[in-house]
Amino acid sequence: MRICVVGDELATGVGDARALGWTGRVVARTHFARPAMLFTLAVPGENSTQLGARWEAETAARFGPDSEVENRLVVALGRHDVAAGLTVARSRLNLANILDVADANRTAAFVVGPPPGAPAEGDRIAELSDAFADVASRRRVPYVDTYTPLAQHEQWLADLAQGGGTYPGQAGYGLMAWLVLHTGWHSWLGLPQDEVA
Q1: Which site in 10, 87, 177, 194 is 20 to 30 Å from 17, CA atoms measured?
Q2: Quick one: which of 91, 92, 116, 96 has its CA closest to 179?
Q3: How far apart are CA 41 and CA 47, in angstroms?
Q4: How far is CA 54 from CA 33, 114, 135, 148, 186, in A?
């Protein structure tokens, strides 16, 4: 199995002293029958329009060409659409296009939504997360809402504050990983969930 994670710097775990981020923690808690390859393909500051322009070429170089390889795509959406001033309609279309191309390529997709950031952006990020969730739902693609459970979570807010209000630390990435692991990750991979605690 080859899993490509495409997204912004949050996908790499920037701000995590252990350098694991949520992706490293999720993979550490996932027991594959055979060794899997995980590729984190992140671009700092990237919005969904920019992601839509590059993801296919970058994943194609890493996905297996033959039928014996299972190719999986994780779309890790960040908060940069807000700063870029993209409309919710444009953000929706960007994700829809990514998921439609992945489906046409017979690549199973999994979407992780944007987590809370600066309080002033809270309403826009919440609206963006809801829009992304709707796009994924319409395509029967698993979606992890990281905004709603973390927006008022004391540990997340404290961790974010320690990181200057932009990036979480170990605790924050741990919370994101827990949400991913408990929102269909194992079933998406066709694996038992008995390892999740």
Answers
A1: 194
A2: 116
A3: 14
A4: 31, 19, 20, 28, 27
| pTM as predicted | 0.95
Question: Measured between alpha carbons, how far is 196 from 25 in angstroms, rounded to an integer?
Answer: 11
Contacts of 26 (CB under 8 A, 6+ apart): 177, 180, 181, 185
What local confidence, expressed as pLDDT, does residue 197 receive? Answer: 47
Which residues 6+ apart lie within 8 Å of 175 measured at CB? 149, 150, 153, 155, 156, 168
* pLDDT one-digit tens code per residue, 134-183: 999 999 999 999 999 999 999 999 999 998 889 999 999 999 999 999 99
Distance of CA 116 to the CA centre of its chain: 13
